Amino acid sequence: MIIKKKSKLKRTPMILIITFSLVLAGCTKSAEQSKEKISKPFVYSGYTEEVYDNYTKKSEYVEMSDGVKIAVDIYLPADGPKQDSFPVILQYTPYGRSFILPKMTLFEKIGMKYSLGTWGPVLDRANSKDTVYGSNKEMIQKFIANGYVYICADIRGTGASFGVKRDFMPEIATDGAELIDWIADQSWSNGNVGMFGGSYLGYSQLVTAGEKPAALKAIFPEVVPLDGYTGEIRPGGVFLQQYSRQDTQTYFELNNYLPDKYVYPTTPVIDEDGDGEYDDEIPRDLNGNGSFLDDYKFPEDPNDPPQYADGEVRDHIYYLATYEHKQNIPYNNVGPQTQFIDSKHDYGEGEKELTAYDVGPANSVAAIMKSDVAIYNHGSWMDPFVRGTNELYSTLKDTNPSKMIIDVGYHETYSPFWKYLGEDEDRSIALYATEMLRFFDRYLKGIQNGIDTEPPIYIYNMNGDGWRFENEFPLAREVLTDYYFGENSTLSPSKGAAGSDKYLVNFEHDSSWPSQDSDSNVSRWVMTAPDEMPIRTEMDKLAQLYTTAPVTEDTEVTGYPIANLSVSSTAPDGDFYIYLEDIDETGEAVLVTEGVLRAGFSKLFNNDNMINGGKEGINVLPELPWHGYEEKQYDKAVFSNNKIVKLTIDLFPTSWVFKKGHSIRVSIAASNSPTFEISPTLSSSNDPKDSSNIVPTVTIYRDAEHQSMITLPIIPSGGKK
């Protein structure tokens, strides 16, 4: 759940943002004049007013019970009605609560003012037009203007906080709860706290809620899985290596300054010399490599303290906090060790060995069920955690006030699908501030705005009718329809002649594609929003294909496609990647959704086992295939003795309309490198070009005893909601 996102300096269409801001301002003024009460998704007026024109900001350290100090920024409403206390909205992040650009030239300041709306050098969530890992200027200022205190806190071991970070360590939960308790005790707090944010910030919300702090009333987790093991470490049991290789320490933990890579240090908390400037609190980088940590021997050698640009003497607070981060264990050290969901790994001195069961979001579900916290789950169809978005909603909806919204985004809400579907990307994303305000008004201010009485689910139907309400997901009106693999690479609702198809595995198959905004290829799996559509036309040449005739009417697929393959292989084990694609009249293949499974995990188990191996007795919904992923459940020679194995692979949920004249395609590959590792059974070097690799032939069967097909959740046209 680690986002690595570059600044949008190069791609932000400022005219669109300014135009939309003016339109939104005009609409807001009109609504205020009429006092008409409107409350529906992305539209909200008449229930609250933007009565605070400004804010005051202060930064401080909050000490945890074990002595670790957490850095927080506090934004208090100002220039409005006198009010002693406010509800509070918290973001609890490992991605830097605020950034600072030292040594800015006049030219750089002018560029920043034009593109991001601030002269700098501090770039935070209330002064920047850019998205800063889940929030931006318009969003935060909307909260403040409507009478909320906004707080952003650096997770221990990150930013300007002290302490050591090991990804998904238990301290993230306990610190979160202590922060909530501290907020509730402050004079400017009325005791009602909400949280929001995506990815790791979604995780931090769930585990904090699992500690049941009394003041936490509502959370808005975005793009976060229920099960962390299959969500981001090993989807389908296959190691997601490209994501694991990201150097998150450099970006968010060691306060490096690498402007060519858009890497900036987190803003210090304490202005030690009292001159009102914070960039001079960052020690000098003597060797010019972007890091100040390797320039001094302090604190081991008190005679070699950090130096500062102004030559003033300090207590080195910022340096010492960052110095502790050198002990962090980065995610790319933890992931490879977690071969199975029950693999134990060390979480540091004084901590017992823990498993993915212990540290994943699912571990907090039982406690959340015993709280009254309201949950608004935000997911995106192209996000690798979208299954988890629905699992969290469906599993908790009967115990907690719950809602779910799913758009067309990737791991960020940014997505080329907005343009593809004729939507304004920036406008669509900006509207989430309004949706959050509706939610927090209801549960932190008690405003009866109807958000809890409307249908609980709001999804974007792609190529169809766009945004629409639903009462459940999967939809009660779905018609599960089997599409069978046939001879000559056909796909049909009717069974064809018995036979089989042989596919020679091609290690050159790679589901990622180039992006102008990234130094490497992108895909659903790398947690970065692409700027180009996922076109699979070329990669399909390296896969086994099954394609329908052009559909004779618009055909909606909304729900979970599930593939059932009957396969054998000349190798003992292997990995399978399934893609559902839309083929237009020209033959171009657009990726709709996908799934992955290591064949050695072919056996199915109760999906309730996703939560602590089933020990909690929680009914995980919806009922979807679950392959256990424990060490004892893995068969490393699943294809031995020419065995034909049934593989049941659920693809990510989707809501897509195949237009009349388009075809539906299933594409099957057995490698996806470098995004995923190559099966160790086939390649000891994990190199797709290694001549010593075992290149198996996979046989896909389609006969009465061994059917291969995909089941699609078809929504009848004109069907009732």
TrEMBL record:
InterPro entries recorded: AB_hydrolase_fold, CocE/Ser_esterase, Galactose-bd-like_sf, Xaa-Pro-like_dom, Xaa-Pro_dipept_C, Xaa-Pro_dipeptidyl-ppase/CocE
EC number(s) given by UniProt: 3.1.1.-
Swiss-Prot/TrEMBL keywords: Hydrolase, Signal
Domain Xaa-Pro dipeptidyl-peptidase C-terminal positions: 437-711
Signal peptide: 1-25
Pfam families linked to this entry: Peptidase_S15, PepX_C
Any GO molecular function: hydrolase activity
Root EC class: hydrolase
Top-level taxon: Bacteria
Keyword Disulfide bond: no
NCBIfam families on file: CocE_NonD
The name this protein goes by in its record: Serine esterase
